[in-house]
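Hello again, I could really use a second opinion on something today. I've been staring at a protein lately and its backbone has me curious. Please have a think about how the structure follows from the sequence. I owe you a coffee for this, so here goes:
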Amino acid sequence: RAMSDPDDSVRTAALDALLSHRPGGRAVVLAAWEAASAEDRVLLLEGLDARRPAIRVLVELALSDPSPEVRIVALSVATDTEGVPELQRAVVRALSDPQRSVRQAATLVLPSLDGAPRDVFPDLLRAARDRNPLLRLPAANLLQANVTADDAGPILELSRDPEPLLRQSAAIALGGLGERGADALFALLGDPDLAVRRAAAKSLPLLAGGLDADEPFPRAGEVAAAVARCFEDRDPELRALAARVVPHLAQAAGPAIGPLVAAATATSSSRFVRPLVGLARFSDEALLCLVDLAERDPEWDSSAQRAIAGRSTEEIEALLLRPEPAV
């Protein structure tokens, strides 16, 4: 009788007690479920607490119910699936449901999935290509958030997709793949879509674990060449994103230093302060650029002073004695 109680917590407790009692209690619930109409199944499901292991049995059953209304309510119940791969698989399968309303309901649950089993990646990839734009981005985001270097295939495939939104999502994930994602990431830095190029530039630091990591950049010379090409882009945001990477390339930054200095000299944008100060630790060209900018604009003076303070007296003397370039 408690299974029919209007109070959600009472129904949850009753079902939990019955489903936990094997085989008798579970048989009672499943028999009642089979005999119930779609409307009654919806009423039974609403408000249930799927965090209880026994309740998940019923929710998983409901996710494959013939009635779209039942499947939608089951998805609303299955919002906390952490550590329950069976429910996660069922939610991801709902992304391929023949009913559009069920697919859209599944996208609302996707952000709550904390991880996803690897065997659902093909389903996520199909959803990421759905004609419905409400489906595409959540599926692509979940795909890129859970991919590892061991199963990079879906992300590499997305990076070549004709849909810019999906290439953008792929770009965000590629840096986390390390060397396996480098070639595709370099290619997206030249993508015709600006949002994709920006996402690729933001992802570049992830090749080395992020800007705060001490790890060396893999293929640093190629990264420097890719960053140098970014400085030819007309978008100031992209150039600024690329500039962040240059100091972290250390001695391999050579190909990118000239373009960075040229961009900073041309714009005097404060976005180039930190990259130039970082580079000035080992690049005379960057240090002299800061000094030149400070002569033109007093706001750059403190940055130039910081850079100079990071050099030895002998290095500064050598710079002062350097002959002026021929005009």
About this structure: Residues 133-146 form the longest helix (14 residues). The radius of gyration is 28 Å. Residues 40 and 214 are 59 Å apart (CA to CA). The chain has 20 helices and no strands.
